[in-house]
């Protein structure tokens, strides 16, 4: 049965005019980056709820605590793109678009020229007071901009902050103009990311490649299994 589904998906990839990929942390786990909520994930064993530790409130009112958490739990500067990143990049550069929840920058490292980083990028680091950019190494050494005492932060969407409207509209446009949508490595429960699917063309085919079934499964063709194994058998 799995072989039949893979053949069907391969045929749809080959005939698709435009493919949109929706990805999450399950893609980057194969690059050694933990996901969020599973055992061993970045929230595992953390006393403070993620909605609190990764909030704009903590960033501004307890910046040292915020800085310690992201540095110790979210940055993996030596991580490299894996086969999934590479194959999605190959597909997107041909006729597709990637909308990712991941903030690790690995899709761009893989050479993907059509990436919307829905929740931002950890390496887009800047001073909240003057907007000056900083490198990872500079941020690692201090979260205070010495020239104006502004708080330095990564350009990721925190709890309490809105999604960038330009990225939101670009994402909606990509979904609307695709005749094939592939969801991979995400539980697909975080909003508004999970809401993007509602904008799809009714005739668009939707596939999910995941270790577990999605909560919203109406009209979705599911391949339950390891995404790395699945993508290793697909050609783009």
From TrEMBL:
InterPro entries: DHS-like_NAD/FAD-binding_dom, NAD-dep_sirtuin_deacylases, Sirtuin, Sirtuin_cat_small_dom_sf, Ssirtuin_cat_dom. It is an enzyme of class 2 (transferase). It comes from the Bacteria. Keywords: Hydrolase, NAD, Transferase. Residues 1-236 form the Deacetylase sirtuin-type domain. It holds the Pfam family SIR2. Its EC number is 2.3.1.286. GO terms for molecular function: hydrolase activity. PANTHER family: NAD-DEPENDENT PROTEIN DEACYLASE, NAD-DEPENDENT PROTEIN DEACYLASE SIRTUIN-5, MITOCHONDRIAL-RELATED. This is protein acetyllysine N-acetyltransferase. It comes from Lactobacillus colini. The lineage of its organism: Bacteria, Bacillati, Bacillota, Bacilli, Lactobacillales.
């Amino acid at each position: 049965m799995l072989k039949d589904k893979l053949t069907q998906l391969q045929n749809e990839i080959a005939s698709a005019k435009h493919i949109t990929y929706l990805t999450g942390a399950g893609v980057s786990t194969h690059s050694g980056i933990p996901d969020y909520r599973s055992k061993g994930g970045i929230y595992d064993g953390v006393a403070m709820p993620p909605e609190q530790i990764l909030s704009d409130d903590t960033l501004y009112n307890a910046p040292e605590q915020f800085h310690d958490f992201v540095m110790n739990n979210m940055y993996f500067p030596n991580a490299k793109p894996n086969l999934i990143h590479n194959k999605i990049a190959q597909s997107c550069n041909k006729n597709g678009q990637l909308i990712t929840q991941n903030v690790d920058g690995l899709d761009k490292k893989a050479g993907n020229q059509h990436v919307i980083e829905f929740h931002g990028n950890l390496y887009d680091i800047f001073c909240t007071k003057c907007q000056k950019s900083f490198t990872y190494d500079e941020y690692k050494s201090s979260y205070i901009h010495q020239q104006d005492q502004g708080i330095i932060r990564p350009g990721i969407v925190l709890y309490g902050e809105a999604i960038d409207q330009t990225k939101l509209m670009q994402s909606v446009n990509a979904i609307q103009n695709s005749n094939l949508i592939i969801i991979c490595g995400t539980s697909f429960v975080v909003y508004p990311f999970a809401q993007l699917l509602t904008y799809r063309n009714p005739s668009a085919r939707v596939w999910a490649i995941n270790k577990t079934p999605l909560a919203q499964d109406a009209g979705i063709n599911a391949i339950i299994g390891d995404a790395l194994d699945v993508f290793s058998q697909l050609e783009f």
